[in-house]
Design goal:
heterodimer; A: 122 residues; mainly beta; Rieske Iron-sulfur Protein; globular; B: alpha/beta; FAD/NAD(P)-binding domain; 5 domains; five-stranded parallel sheet; disordered N terminus; binds siroheme; binds flavin-adenine dinucleotide; binds iron/sulfur cluster; binds FE2/S2 (inorganic) cluster
Chain lengths: 122, 828
Amino acid sequence: MSVDLRDPARPPGAGQTWVQVCSYTDLLPERGACVLVGSLQIALFRTFEGRLHAIGNRDPFSGAYVLARGIVGTRGEEPTVASPMHQQAFSLVTGECLDDPAVAVPVYPVRVADGVVEVGVA
Amino acid sequence: MNAANGSTGSGKRVVVAGYGPAAHRLAETLRGRGFAGPITMLGEEPRSAYDRVALTSYLDGKTAEDLTYPVPAGITPRLGARVTGIDRQARLVTTEDGHAEPYDVLVLATGSSAFVPPVPGRDLPGCFVYRTIDDLDAIREAARGASSGIVVGGGLLGLEAAEALRGLGLATHVVEMGPWLMPRQVDEGGGVVLRRHIEALGLSVHTGAGVAEIQPGPDGRVARLVKPDGEAVEAQIVVFSAGVRPRDELARRAGLAVGERGGVVVDEGMRTGDPSIYAIGECALAAGTVYGLAGPCFTQAEVAADRIMGGTASFTGADVSTKLKLLGVDVASFGSLDGGLDVTFMDPVGGVYKKLFVSDDARTLLGGICVGDAEPYAALRPLVGRELPASPTELLFAGTAAISADLPDDAQVCSCNNVTTGRVRQAIAEEGLTDVQGVKRCTRAGTTCGSCVPMLRQILVSSGVDVGKAMCEHFPHSRAELYDIVRVRGITTFSQLVAEHGTGRGCGVCKPAVASILASLGGGHILDGEQAALQDTNDHFLANIQRNGTYSVVPRIPGGEITPEKLIVIGEVARDFGLYTKITGGQRIDLLGARVEQLPAIWKRLVDAGFESGHAYGKALRTVKSCVGSTWCRYGVQDSVGLAIALELRYRGLRSPHKLKSAVSGCARECAEARSKDFGVIATEQGWNLYVGGNGGFKPRHADLLAADVPTGELIRIIDRFLMFYIRTADRLQRTAAWVESLDGGLDYLREVIVEDSLGICAELEDQMERHAAYYADEWRATIEDPDKLRRFVSFVNAPGVPDPSISFETERDQIKPVLIPLEVTRS
Ligand code: SRM
Ligand SMILES: Cc1cc2nc3c(=O)[nH]c(=O)nc-3n(C[C@H](O)[C@H](O)[C@H](O)COP(=O)(O)OP(=O)(O)OC[C@H]3O[C@@H](n4cnc5c(N)ncnc54)[C@H](O)[C@@H]3O)c2cc1C
Ligand code: SF4
Ligand code: FES
């Protein structure tokens, strides 16, 4: 099976705008939360070390918008989230599914400015 | 095999007619051993070779790509190209589309076709065979408009096809000519047990029944099958699975010898009468037999490859053991099924039948049959033809562990891939393998039907490798070991545990397991502090996630007893929040379709009316079912409802390795189905009988009697100990049924520990349960009373009032139903 869910129309970094979504303290360590940016559902994660990651909230295997509710962890060095539907692990860095490398979810740039979390969208 | 090195034969053009599993294995072996010449595959199907053994998985979610083998490097496949002629003089094959392909070596690997008995109506629309992906596509399509289906043939493939029809939602019949099901694999006794299993699953079995005619309906499609006795079975689909016939027509036409009952005759080197033509797989008659199993076909392909490269390998016959899980029933047979003496074990209640055939002096194992429990199969199969390591009776009950350590190196452990125990041991030693995955990769054992995997694991263990125990990459411990570490060291957080005893930051396997351990050792509310991040989504939202991302709400209804007022509240809540409402199998009510942000408001209404969480989401106590009992029922001898409520209230909220279910029946009529529960109680004139280790689900098991005629106080003490001992020592996601079976010494040992207190831990276990009962608090109430916890019940942190726009419903039978989110995936 080969499925690529990254938006082909959006080359990384090109013409992106930063959108303020929530405060850093809204996010719990090692847990996800979802934000709505326009019609995009973006899952934000705060790792144990405090780093932030943003990926698409849609679980490509079930079609449900639930990735923000998965368990955050690591596989080797890679920070991951496991889909709460059927437990496939996704890299929080690349969006790739580590159990099925042909599947991936989009990743979004994310940063903190003055305690406010911002995601970059096209 | 001892072919000369890879340069031999490298100039030859190899052409293969047929591109199935055998053809694939041939090409892969040639390339793997350095054969450099051109290899052309001419396959009739529109796709490259795929795993036909796994064909049925195509109907439950696997795609054609999942099943397809990777094409070996430098192979030219011509797909959709049926070979129609062989010109042996010119060394040329021709295909239907007019293409001509010259060869130096031709390999026939055309497999077989399903045999369709010549009955009137066999060509009607709605008649199928079960052999290719295209067949399955056609069956799936036809099933859409059908309500019932018939499989003609109750052999291995027939039952597999029946399972598939059932999976497609059809009322399914199996029509078998022979006197019992799977007549080629099992004897009559096994057939009886098998039939019982299959009927219990709702399939209709007609044995000793042929087919007189298949009749069309007014639309010209299949409408019914008529048996010779005139009885008609209505169905819109008929699948023929009445055996296979080797596809030897090319060889016949080219003047090559074929067997009386079909099959291209080959010698030990898989060569036909023409030295440049080989035949392998299901189309070949090798060592006097046409083999219909993947294992021998693969061995034949490897032998032919060796010969093409100048080697001297030979095929002299193969093991035709079979094991399969059909409709959840284990069926296995191996070795020879007659001769000598036989030892039979039969448990008609438990649905188990096992038989071993041994030589007249009872020293050598000849073969065996297992139905309902194939545990001994993987271990015994390699011992066929060898001296028995124990008495036949002991062997019938032996697990894989007991036997594997003594397996001689030359015993074949994987028959699909012809791998010996010695080869596996050697790979483990030389490659430093540490898991079954590695053994599969290095030896290929276990990669086809998978039935030898338990043995591979045992060989790893007996070679000194520590397997299977590690929970995941983050902890080398089993759940029981982690439980002890947490308990003995007084660890209270995951972070401390993983820092001191593990690596990384955990995953979806170890985090919920550790959360459960912390909770059963009295860790407070499961959403407190760091614990919240360990919970899976169900525990995190105290509700069960559903396929569209909504959740279900199941309030506790202890013992299934409920007042009219409370019933009305449930109805009102469901109505006001627009939830789908259903009575569960656990004597309570499920409200489905709640969005995360609705959950607290729903709970508030329920909690205000006196309800609490039913823990339908947790690995915890679910329900204690009850029957009406002595208060009302004219047969009842004890108050089953009263006891069920008391038990449910005592053990509610108890986190455990897997879910726990219970039931109490008021008399031996057993209306509460207590013996299908983890702990079940049945009233007696003198007190209660306690049964443990039962469950329904994937592998049903009846609970065993642990204590008889005990009074209520003592009953509760024993259950306390039973549950706490289970929580301490079971594996992650191991139900009590599997746990009791895994205990060394089984039920007797369990009775020693928790009834006779042989380990002296009973007081401690009871104490721990007392504490659980004393500190229990409703998780829903604690959540709605804590603003911090409430903050996470939103779909979007930046838009708390906005519902998830991807969730929508339609109406079915006057209630909501999720509109499924389409899977828009781009395939490349
Ligand atoms: C709701 C219910 C079906 C129904 O509408 O009747 C149900 C629904 C689910 N069952 Fe069940 N089971 C329900 C009764 C049963 C029963 C019958 C019973 O309890 O009397 C069984 C067989 C008995 C047994 O467990 O021994 C049953 C055997 C399973 C299994 C297989 C367990 C096994 O050991 O093989 C699973 C899977 C698992 O737990 O890993 C499962 C898992 C599930 C899950 C949790 C699947 C999931 O992860 O989503 C379903 C949750 C739906 C939801 O959100 O409510 N359900 N499930 C029943 C809830 C009973 C209750 O009130 O709590
Ligand atoms: C549903 C099902 C379940 C099974 N389960 C098991 C199991 O559990 N264990 C087990 O060991 N075995 C099982 N088998 C049997 C196993 O699949 C076969 O033994 C194996 O596929 C044989 O491989 P083969 O390559 O010889 O033949 P095939 O798989 O039949 O492949 C032959 C190929 O050649 C093609 N072909 C035929 N004639 C021509 C021609 N003239 N020109 C071009 N192409 C041609 C055919 O279309 C086909 O693609 C199962 C089979 C089925 C159908
Ligand atoms: S189990 Fe016994 S008491 Fe309970 S309802 Fe059935 S017959 Fe009556
Ligand atoms: S016996 Fe079938 S894979 Fe090993």
